[in-house]
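retry 2 of 3: previous attempt timed out while embedding phosphoribosyl ATP. Reduced batch size to 1 and resubmitted. Inputs unchanged:
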Amino acid sequence: MSEVIRVAIQKSGKLTEKSLELFKHCGIDFESIKGRLLLKCENFPIELMMVRSSDIPEYVMDGVCQLGVLGSNVIEEKIGPLGNDNPLEVVKKLGYGRCRLSLAVPKNAEYKDLSYFNMGKIATSYPKTLRRFLNSQNLEADVIEISGSVEIAPSLQIADGICDLVSTGTTLFSNNLREAYEILSSEAVLIRSKRELNPCQEKTVSRFLQRVSGVLTARSRKYIMMNALRSNLDKIKSVLPGMEGPSIMDISNGGDKIAIHAVCREPIFWETMENLKEAGASSILVLPIEKIID
Ligand code: PRT
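retry 2 succeeded.
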């Protein structure tokens, strides 16, 4: 029974670099052979299949791949909304590739609310998601399917608005458009089929997920070290929300001074460090954490 699992990721595009980086941080090394679409790994029972994002849902559903990394917007478009009826499930949100699918209108359009689109024309590369949204809002509009450069449609006067992915908003701005309504938000997710795998593959999936969780948890936490008088400990604890611990250590020849070490779940800003100093802490160090297994 094979324990090897195949994971589909985007071959080249907005999610590729961050996805490869995630595998690297999980300690999973792939042979790097330019142009090869199936990459083997020597230190983990995993193969990486480099494909187009839009093909990933099918590959995972058909069992060609056991896992896939893609934007959740692609699942919505290709298969349908996530939930009980969807044969795919999200096993981990990955926190990158964040964007939103939005309706946008020409900058000078008289847009007040969604009724602007009723009986109008909307250009999009996401026709299924858009039609579902229009139905849910009891709106009727002509959906014009365009596979790329959707932003140009209103200036060519073939549409009254568009429905496209937005991240920074720069593309809309440069095409004299403005965001009118967010239909859904998206980020990169790790998906699998709801069908059971063989027990050895299930074990590999669990091991892989543990590593991914370890990397993502570590990214959201920081390790903080400082010195202070023992009498200031309570004040210091009140400055640091989301602190686990802390560990308290005596400092040799430090008198009443102690060393305080803790893992923080919340961001530590310069203001937090200034407040710590005011509460009596000195030699404050904030360090990134590479991996965590709870
Ligand atoms: O792999 P395949 O060719 O099938 O997919 P693709 O052509 O959709 O690839 P790609 O690389 O464009 O997008 C891959 C995934 O990245 C998408 O499915 C989203 O989940 C995610 N993502 C995140 C984005 C964006 N941000 C994004 N800004 N995908 C596309 N864009 C485009 C958008 O379509 C528009 O043209 O960027 C433009 C807008 O960006 P801003 O920053 O100017 O607002």
